[in-house]
Design a protein that fits this description.
single chain, 299 residues, mainly beta, nine-stranded antiparallel β-sheet, eight-stranded antiparallel β-sheet, globular, binds 6-O-phosphono-beta-D-tagatofuranose
Length: 299
């Protein structure tokens, strides 16, 4: 079968399979299984909450305390941050895309056994403040997880200025033992120190306190080395100039109602997007395509 329908339960010929279910909090979700992996995606936020390769622990961290409720953000997985990153006066942090129910436009099992799902952000009252645009998100599942967030500015006259970020929560054995490679020499804004501008001096970033950093002007791939899970995660990106690294550590974890007090030990966010001074200025009629590939291997 080349293309799937978007209604009802439908099984696709072996090995790619998509099942439509009522997920947690009665939110609609899809379970995907391929010859290599399983995944779960909620329509709310087009939010990938789970990806697991056979014979590996889950790649994505999902909080045991996450809310699953209409209009509330999910804590973990891959929140799609758009059209702004961080706080905005009188508005929700990290934009509205993660809070809306997206439309599933198509799912397509490829002959090689991959499954792709294409979502579209519906028109929303919040979107009226921005130039008319089409926002699509394609999630491809095989032995890796590939994500593509495409924004097209439909205005004939107006530039569309926005931020985007795939705010990815990775599952790790113990964050204290993890090293993050690929950011040496990159300038970053240190949110923990009031956005102080610094330069990364370490070959391998280690986490031993709260970390909240926006690395700017970097198109490079990063790697997360996790000796406890004996796993190396690779984050490759295209059309992304910012990498955000976040772990809330103890005090922040305790303040977050949708995050367990000890869960900071099992996660690290390494996020790919275009934020702060890397925001996108999209001319009328043009498209931007943020692409991220998440893969893992034993180490
Ligand atoms: O990407 C890091 C960050 O912006 C942090 O400052 C932290 O607050 C985090 O995102 C989570 O934001 P959220 O709105 O999901 O609680």
């Amino acid at each position: 079968m080349a293309n799937g329908k978007t209604e009802g339960n439908l099984e696709i010929a072996n090995p790619g399979k998509v099942t439509f279910l009522e997920g947690r909090g009665e939110l609609p979700m899809m379970e995907v299984s391929t010859a290599w992996s399983t995944a779960e995606i909620y329509l709310q936020g087009a939010h990938v909450t789970h990806f697991r390769k056979k014979n590996e622990p889950p790649l994505l961290f999902l909080s045991q305390c996450s809310r699953f409720a209409a209009g509330q953000p999910i804590r973990g997985g891959i929140p799609v941050v758009f059209p702004w990153f961080g706080p905005r006066e009188g508005m929700n942090q990290h934009g509205f895309a993660r809070l809306k129910e997206w439309e599933l436009k198509e799912f397509a099992p490829a002959p090689d056994g991959s499954v792709s799902l294409r979502f579209r952000l519906p028109e929303t009252p919040e979107g009226a403040a921005f130039p008319s645009c089409t926002v699509e998100y394609v999630v491809t599942i095989n032995d890796a997880l590939q994500l593509e967030l495409a924004v097209t500015n439909n205005s004939k006259t107006e530039e569309f200025v926005f931020e985007n970020c795939l705010h990815t929560y990775f599952e790790v054995g113990d964050v204290r033992d993890v090293s993050i490679k690929g950011l040496k020499g990159i300038t970053y804004l240190d949110k923990v120190e009031n956005f102080a501008r610094k330069s990364e001096t370490d070959d391998a970033i280690r986490i031993s306190s709260e970390v909240d950093r926006i690395y700017l002007n970097t198109a490079d791939a990063t790697e997360i080395l996790d000796p406890r899970l004996a796993r190396k995660i690779r984050v490759e990106k295209h059309a992304s100039l910012s990498t955000v690294v976040w772990n809330p550590w103890i005090a922040k974890a305790q303040q977050m109602p949708d995050f367990g007090n000890e869960e900071f030990e099992r996660m690290i966010c390494v996020e790919s997007g275009n934020v702060s001074s890397n925001q996108i200025r999209l001319p009328p009629g043009e498209s931007s395509r943020l692409k991220v590939k998440l893969s893992s291997s034993a180490m």
